[in-house]
Amino acid sequence: MILKRIAKYSYLSYMIIIFPIIILLIVMTFGLFYYENKNNFIKNSTDSLIGMQKAFDVVVSDMNLNATEMLDSADFSTSKITTKYGSFLGISRRLSSYVSYSKMINNVFYINNDLKTVYTLGKPYTYEDFYLFNDGYNITKDTYAQFFLKNILRFWIPAQNAGANGEQVLTYVVTYNGEHNYPSNALVVHIGTEKLDELFDGFLPNSQAEMLVLDNNNSILYSTLGELSQDIQKSLISINTDSLEPKYMDYNKKQYLVLTKPSTETPITYALIIPTAVMLKSMNASILFFAILMVVVALISIFVIAALLKASRKNRAAMLEQIALKLVQSNYGNQQALQDDIRTAGLERLGPHFQVATAMLTAKYPIQNQLIIYQEISRLIEKELPIHPQSKVLTCSSDDLIYVVFSGQKDIFASLIDALCEMKPKIESLFQVFLSIGVGSASTIDNIGTSAEQARIANKYRFVKGENAIIYFENINKQNSSKLIYPSETIELFYNVILQREEEKINLVLTTLIEHISRNNSLFFGTCLAYDIVNTSLKAMRELNYSLSNFKNTDIYNRDGFKSIDDVKNVLNLLIEEIIATFSSEGYEQDEVPESSKHSLLINQMKKHIEENCIKSDFSINSLADNYKMSISNLSHYFKKQTGENVSDFVLKLRVDRAKFLLRTTKLTLQKISQECGYVHISTFLRQFRQSEKMTPSNYRSSFGVKEAAHKTLSQFEDS
């Protein structure tokens, strides 16, 4: 059952298929993105470490070369020092030259254990004297040989305040056996930590990274920051420093990335320690870019899905509308052809019985996009009619009618039609129209065209109860109803000849209508037509500035009903006499038209011209004046005299009324509405609307809660 429903609604299939794929792609892309950024970070950090290792190994290599050269030279041998006077000067000169040559060396001194003497840049000292001036190593005069002359060729002493001026230095010791089997001489080199900081700072990948120099036991000899050095000493001991592979250690509830690289010149290891939080932080910009990219991808995906959903909905709605149209046009020869189309549209079944209702609209204001209004009303009807498990409602619009097709069990049609009738006031209020409903008889698919025709015929009898009547075909005379042809064009002609005061034509047209009633011999039809004729004549006479007080027999316009066909014809004959008598009482020849009537006709023509053209962007008072061969001032004065209002105010009222109608009934933007109402500039529309209604168009749209709610319902249906 679930699979069937998924297959039925293709948009659900799109979402079920596409959405998980999008999520999977986002997760995979994020994983690859994170992995790639992490590897790049580690690679850049490794390159930084290798750069530091190479830079300091160059310094160490230079120290090894100079130390070996000096310790092997005759100037530093015990025999020459003891036999040649002034040999100290040669040692001092060599040491001073080395310090001045190297940018990294702060100080250097030579220890000769045979003579228990320390040779500095300035002068020689005995162990006891040198101890008095240089105790930074916290050793005594008796432990000098033990401290510096270890049985190790080269070793390091951790950075400490052991410099000549108390500065912090890293000490490098190179021993020399000479003529003994154990170290008897040593060259001690001081490397200033400030110079090391300058050397390594250029390679550190970020401000929180720390560079360490470790000895063979992973003890810290030097660090750039000094913040973690002693605290993480124990954690470093367990780390394998022989490989460049990234390692991780935990300390103080934080995780650190550790990269190590052994020196190629001396038994030390370089270590680069970076908090993993810094690694993630360094990726924030990339993650932000990725997040923006993913949002864009998600929005595009949502847009694609929404487009697919909308296309699917529109396609399904169009298919259902086409099915309804084919039904009312009797284009289905059998039930099977209908069911094939129904399954294609995603429905399970229609029938076995059908009943058709038609809705006819009369707009209170001029409507440009009449088709859109018809379609929106059709969808609103289909959306809001109560859902019944044994019924289905389809709608379509054609020939200025909205067709509502009820399908299902015959016994539930009455309740659905009642619900449709209950919707009338809401539709009329929302769309500013008068609505009449004609209802045909229930039938099977073979006779559904007959039901549609009956509904159309029923709607032609709306004049019995007025423009907003509800007419059931079964209440019409069944013998003659199918043969009746409503003379709409003749009634329109009757209206025009009254306006032109052509008495002979008035008599001729009205006589033709009376004969039409006699031919059909239907009291119901005659009653409908009589009301229509009387209302039409009253409308025309009012446009000629006549009122009921001008008529001698006002009973014609106040009839509640007719007793027979003859009664109908008598009333219409009296109507002919009344109209002609009213014209004759004015005292003019047939071909003459009173001046007042001429003015009335001209003003009516002007108003009609304005109503039809004021919503066009090229309409203006100037073009109106040109159309009637008048100057703007003369036109304005004439219109004001005849109507009591300025022509500009009349145009403004029509445009604002049109705008209010569109604001209530459509989702058009304010820019589009201003264009639909004849405005070239939206600023002019906003200003004039605010002056007329004391509120902005947006506030006006939001102020109509009921209409807005109904409009939202319509919008939701359109998207569903």
Model description:
With 720 residues, the chain is of the alpha+beta class. Helices cover 55% and strands 15% of the residues. The chain is built from 26 helices and 16 strands. The strands form three sheets. A six-stranded antiparallel β-sheet has the order 3-2-1-6-5-4. A five-stranded antiparallel β-sheet has the order 8-7-11-10-9. β2 (117-119) and β3 form a beta hairpin. It is elongated. Mean pLDDT is 78; it is low at 1-11, 477-482, 587-593 and 705-720.
What topology emerges from the helices and strands here?
Layout lengths: L1 H7 L1 H63 L5 H6 L3 H15 L3 E8 L4 E3 L4 E3 H7 L10 H5 L5 E8 L6 E9 L8 E8 H9 L8 E5 L5 E4 L9 H5 L9 E5 L2 E9 L6 E7 H7 L1 H45 L6 H11 L7 E11 L6 H15 L6 E8 L2 E8 L4 H19 L1 E7 L8 H12 L10 E3 L15 H12 L3 H18 L2 H21 L21 H20 L10 H19 L7 H7 L4 H12 L3 H19 L4 H7 L5 H12 L3 H7 L1 H15 L1
Parallel strand pairs: 15-16
Antiparallel strand pairs: 1-2, 1-6, 2-3, 4-5, 5-6, 7-8, 7-11, 9-10, 10-11, 12-14, 12-15, 13-14
Short description:
With 720 residues, the protein is α+β, with helices and mostly antiparallel strands.
Characterize the main sheet: 6 strands, antiparallel
Low-confidence stretches at least 5 residues in length (pLDDT < 50)? 1-11, 477-482, 587-593, 705-720
- Placed side by side, the strands forming the largest sheet appear as 3-2-1-6-5-4
The Cα radius of gyration reads 52 Å
Q: How many separate helices?
A: 26
**How many extended strands?**
16
User: Could you report the average pLDDT, rounded to the nearest whole number?
Assistant: 78
Q: What best-fitting shape do the alpha-carbon axes yield?
A: elongated
Distance between the termini: 21 Å
Instruction: Return the structural class.
Output: alpha+beta
Please bin the fraction of helical residues. 40-55%
The percent range for strand residues is: 5-15%
Transmembrane segments: 12-35, 287-309
Domain HTH araC/xylS-type: 604-703
Pfam family, one: HTH_18
Organism: Paenibacillus agricola
